[in-house]
Structures are given as structure tokens and as C-alpha cells.
Design a protein that fits this description.
The complex is a heterodimer. Chain A is mostly beta strands. Chain A contains no helices and 12 strands. In chain A, the strands form 3 sheets. In chain A, strands 2, 5, 6, 10, 11 and 12 form a 6-stranded mixed sheet that branches. In chain A, strands 3-9-8-7 form a 4-stranded antiparallel sheet, with no helix packed on it. In chain A, strands 1-4 form a two-stranded antiparallel ribbon. The chains are: A mainly beta, B mainly beta.
Chain lengths: 115, 115
Amino acid sequence: AQKITQTQPGMFVQEKEAVTLDCTYDTSDPSYGLFWYKQPSSGEMIFLIYQGSYDQQNATEGRYSLNFQKARKSANLVISASQLGDSAMYFCAMREGGGYQKVTFGIGTKLQVIP
Amino acid sequence: NAGVTQTPKFRVLKTGQSMTLLCAQDMNHEYMYWYRQDPGMGLRLIHYSVGEGTTAKGEVPDGYNVSRLKKQNFLLGLESAAPSQTSVYFCASSYPGHRGDNEQFFGPGTRLTVL
């Protein structure tokens, strides 16, 4: 079974609107972490936000927030007030357990912001 | 700080040739990783290292070898390149955070084509 599922191959959003990128995960480990990374067309991977399985509050970083629904095993990324520079691939990833930080990535969602 | 650097940025090989990709980080991170990124498949872990002198297999290790002789460097070797190894290779590093919330810092990637 896929550990990280991103079902939206591509998304469009109007500039200044909010957009939600979906991510569901599968793990039996009670301790895990969820990450979102951005990959612009230039190719580099940029860390956006992290949510730990024991965190009580949803993580927020500027215009990024993570809608963490533990019972549903979902960790959706919400980008508020989209900007043209948000056009990129977005990857959801999961770390299971502790230790060395092995992280499994989803296949990504391509977001395009329309002026 | 340069962060994570990768050498070379591009390379074209013929089937059967060998090469080594170099990753260097100046952040004193303990953990280092090699991923490959293929269209529609996200990032997949090839090998990783939890410290100088240690390496371990990831999800797709076949056809690759690694070495971590110095803490700051992580080398990925292809002994006999195959067309299936055509991919973009990313190196990453992270420190052993106590909460597991430490993100991975990525290099700019190496685009490898095997003819």
C-alpha cells in the first residue's frame, strides 16, 4: 500500500485565492511526522511546513497551514492568498518513528497560479 | 554557508560506464541521503547514512553504492550505468532533531542521462 497518497496531479488557482492540496498517509506507527516541500521549475526542494503526530495544534508557517486530521490520516496543505511564485510541484512526505529520519515522499501535485 | 552542494550538475553516460556523484554539506549534519526523482514517482530513497563511516540501503539501492568517509561528504557511485538509471539525483542532509521535526536540506540535483 502507498504510504503517502497525493491524488491531485494538477491544480489551478486564481491569484490571491486560497488552495488546498490533498495528502493522505498510511502508517501504524504512533510516532510520525508529516512534511510538505515545494519544488519550483528551477528544481530545488524547499521545506515548507512540518506536523508531528502528537502535535495538538495544526502547523502554520506564514501563508502555509497544514490541516491535520489524524483520524482520517490526512495532512492537507492550505496556501492562502496564492501568489504567482507559488506555481510549483508540491510534495507531501512522512517520517515514521524516530531514528534516522527516513522519509517517504508522495508523487506530488503540480500547482499553477493564474493571474 | 553553501548548504548542500552536488557535483556535477549534469552528466551523460554510455551504458556500462561508471561515475561518482559527490554531495557535500557544510552544516555539520549527521544524516545524509541520496534520492532519485523520476516523473510520476516522486522521490525515492537510494541509500542513506546516519554518520561518518556508516551507510544503509534505502528503497531502491540496486545498482548503486555509497561511501561516507568524511562527515561532510556522501558519495554515490554507479559501477555500470544502465538506461534505467536515467534520473535526477538529489542529495539531502539533516541533523538528528529531538522531535523528529528537522527538515531535510536538499542539494540542487544532478541530471543524469544514460544512453
